[in-house]
Amino acid sequence: MNNNKVELLSPAGNLEKLKIAINYGADAVYAGVSHFSLRIRAGKEFTFETFKEGIDYAHARGKKVYATINGFPFNSQIDLLKKHIEKMAEVKPDGFIVAAPGVVKLCREIAPDIDVHLSTQANVLNYLDAQVFWDLGVKRIVVAREISLKDVQQIKKHLPDMEIEIFVHGSMCFAYSGRCLISAVQSGRVPNRGSCANDCRFDYTLYAESENQNTLFRLEEDPGVGTYIFNSKDMNLASHIKEIMDSGAVDSLKIEGRTKSPYYAAVTANAYREAIDDYYADTFDADKYQRELHTTKNRGFTDAYLVHRPFEKTDSQNHEYAISKGSYEVTGLITEDEKHFMCKYKVYPNQDIEIFPPRNSNIVECDNEIGKIFKNEDGVYYINFKKILTETNKEMESVHSGNTNKIQLPGTLPYLTMLRTENTEI
Prior knowledge:
By secondary structure, this protein is of the alpha/beta class. It has helices spanning 15-23, 40-43, 48-60, 78-90, 101-110, 127-135, 149-158, 182-187, 241-246, 262-281, 286-293, and strands spanning 7-11, 28-31, 64-69, 95-98, 116-118, 140-142, 163-170, 207-210, 215-218, 234-236, 252-255, 301-302, 328-334, 340-343, 346-347, 353-356, 366-367, 371-375, 381-385, 388-389, 395-396, 399-400, 407-408, 418-422. It contains 11 helices and 24 strands. Strands 1-2-3-4-5-6-7-11 form an 8-stranded parallel beta barrel, surrounded by 5 helices. It starts with 6 loop residues before the first strand and ends with a strand.
């Protein structure tokens, strides 16, 4: 039985998302720099300088940062990879997330003081493979998404000192643990080198060809079935956190999504933080966490394979749409001075807008000529603007996303607080 408190690990696509994840409940975040990370588009949002800034920010708050070096290099890249590992080691992350055995060996040689975590891309499903990587010096394994909880327990039984991390939320790859070639074939973007074009999310028209008759027939789909034939639903294991924690085999719960929105980073960190804390307090309430998680954009949710065998699953694909709107829209993000917000959607006067603050925030109510901050009967805080004033006191009838003016608050709100409204367009 694992007696240490389970870690909550969140994605950090850039410095702002790193700060959001930490302030909304994550114990640790993972992020990357350059082409050796499997999220090149997200990784480009970090430079070595901002990555170090993020590590310093996390460490000052007692949190951890794991650096992703989980691409699969070609021979021509190995010298560059060695230099990259050296440079990443200089900023002192708490661990490297690595997929290839050779890269594991390089990390252990170049930066022996930094823990190595094995990426889910290595597809570990059993204790035999886990033992091989343990012998190579790997401290933690991020098991394959296709693994069962019983098999996780078996790995922990055979390797009690090996840390085990599992994915609990986020996008699911159509292929087996990311082993996909669709993007490479159709657009030349190689998934396991970080540039997946997400071709599985597209809708497709199906045809049947007769080579003998040289004819081509378009197949008609049944109404409502759609043509998103490769599209997996998103993983959501919030309702099963108690079972996972009861197993005693899991050390870290991981959320996918370095390319997702700041709001996604906040909501998922907050919801799973509550789930973990409530578990230890014996007040677990799955419905509460699901209400929050459903406010994010998603492709529909599935509990995936951890608690079910793959052949028992009939609801893991979404044939109708690539992604849906969540039940809430983010209308604003509070700036660092805590006196203004930047508009992210649209804000009008005399509109009650919910305040979604970082954890353990202190909200002070107020009522003045600009507006009011108040708490309703359910204990939820709201803001209502009587006037919409820019930083330079220019009054506006409304403000919409794309407007780069800071908008005044009637009082102060904590940095990174989000303002949100129910989405009326779904």
